[in-house]
Amino acid sequence: MYNMMTMRVKAKHCRVHRWTGTSNSSLVVICLAIISIGNSNPWTNCFGFARPALPLPNSRPPKSLFSNDDSQSASSSSGRGAVKGKSVSISGTPLRGVLLHSSRSRISGANNETPPSQLESVVLNAKSLSENLFRSNPFSNPSLRTKYVTAITAGLAVSLAMVPEAVSFSFVAGVNPLVGLWTTVVLGFFAAAFGGRAGICSSASGACSIVVAGLCASHGPGYLAGCAALAGVLQILAGSAGLGKLIRLVPHPVMIGFVNGLTLVMFRAQLTHFKHDGKFLSPFTPQGQATYACTGLTMILAIPPTLGGVVIAAAVARFFQWPVKTLADVAGAETFRGGVSVLPKLGLPSDFWIPLVTSPLDTLKIILPYAITMAAVGSIESLLTLQLLDGIIDDGKRGSTKREVIGQGIGNLAAGLTGGIGGCALIGQSIINAQSGGGVSRLSGISMAIFLALGIVTFAPLLGQTPICALSGVMLLVCQTSFSWGSLRLLGKIPNLDAFIIMLVTIVTVKDDLAKAVLVGTITSALGFAWKQSTTISAAITTTILDLPHGGPRLPNIKSYNINGPLFFGSSQQFSRLFSVKEDPNDIVIDFTNSRVFDHSALEAINTVADRYGALGKR
User: Fold this and answer.
1) H or E segment and range at residue 43
2) Pick from 104, 407, 595, 470: which is nearest to 415 by CA?
3) Of 470, 478, 377, nearest to 435 (Cα)?
4) Alpha carbon of residue 177 to chain centroid
5) What is the 8-class DSSP label of residue 560?
6) Closest to 476 in 3D by CA, of 256, 277, 306, 314
7) CA distance 542 to 561
8) Does residue 323 sit in helix, strand or coil?
9) Band of the pLDDT at 395, cuts 50, 70, 90?
10) Are 399 and 390 spatial neighbours (Cβ–Cβ below 8 Å)?
11) Exposed, middle or buried, 156 (CB in 10 Å: 0-12/13-18/19+)?
12) Binning pLDDT at 50, 70 and 90, where does residue 546 land?
């Protein structure tokens, strides 16, 4: 009876189009039955208006509003069905092909108001769009605002802690302190923006300054800029090639020795601020009392963020007029004169650029060894700092070694093109940044560079009045928290080789430089591992006698060597000693199921044993 069913519901501006055929008509009946489920009287309530659909763009505008009420609709639908020319509201989700008036039209119809015009709709859509944009703005989220404010505050605190280090390392490299400060600004900005993770702070470092000190002494400070730029290019190439992954080969004992050695280097660098004419200040002199008191006050108050302790200690020293040494006293008043005249110039210095143009090969031969060493030292220290912060900052993220090396390369290239000396990530300042809450966003490193630049240009005289002993107090706290005190308790509990590597790397770091320490520690650890593995190879020997049943002929004996342990260059000689070639029977089986053959030395050892058996006619 439904084969030729035709249904047409026509409201003022919406209609149900014709569906014919068995499948289409059946679909209409099923849909009407579904949307009427749950009503007390499905035939009287199935046409109650529920969720309207928006009118299609090509639908006709209504000539008038709905005039009939729900009771009329219900009675008309129950009595005569859908009457031509009358408005009928349909309950439930609108069917496909049904053009229903929007909910705005129904509301306006109930209130006898005209629907919104096109201009009003545009205004409403604009307001909705602006609200959505405001909700998507990260600064509208209170938690994100707190996150960014914390990161910026941490960057401000670290910018103060960067000053004494940059000034000290400038003296080590043999350049003006202003060069080290601007190196920290440029390198810190680009390394934070393009580095491997948030929280790492880069600056002119002691490891890199020691490397280039000889170049500055022999050829002048202008060559340092070219060396830094070339080191940046090498780091970009190394990072693009994925060489940063090699840091995973550095064992954990080497990491502990690196941290302990670098902590001792930082501690030793801070001791210079408590000396006068090569001797420590006496606690019984006014200068000694003021210096030690200011340092102790900073260490007591310098809980994260460290900016508060530095500011309070500086204010107290200023108020009581303590005779303490300030940054201007160490770096010179010219460094903190401020103004645009202290801005770095873009381009390589003329005392390097002219020789590079006239004799490029000779100039590159001079700076290339230093650049390679600086790139290696900077990359190793930055990657080890990256691994250290991955364990300190518990944000569920792992830093990218590739991006970190590339970011350091971009920073060193930019520092060299602005006359800087180059550098790398600093573990002490990075830990200060992480403890102050700066590990949540890259804004901490970027704001550190911006605040330091503003301080040099705008607030240089005020920045120069900061007591250097207050900043030294912060660094002493960093040394105390950075040193792996647990490694001392591990002595006697870990293998002797690991304990030896920790002490070896620590000593080499203090006496020489980080690159040599990491290289020596890694090689020693690898040789120790190879020796230990070379002693684990062994063989389980079994002899099989095969006899046929019922007194048959006796078959030859078979001797099996079941090899256990890795076979490589370190265990090849031990492997050869496992076999008794002269005493063994004629048939031999060497089973490598529980072993692994790693290199060419292992294959050569197997061939040598086979040749020895073959020479005696055995197989």
Assistant:
1) helix 42-45
2) 407
3) 478
4) 31
5) E
6) 306
7) 7
8) coil
9) confident
10) yes
11) buried
12) low
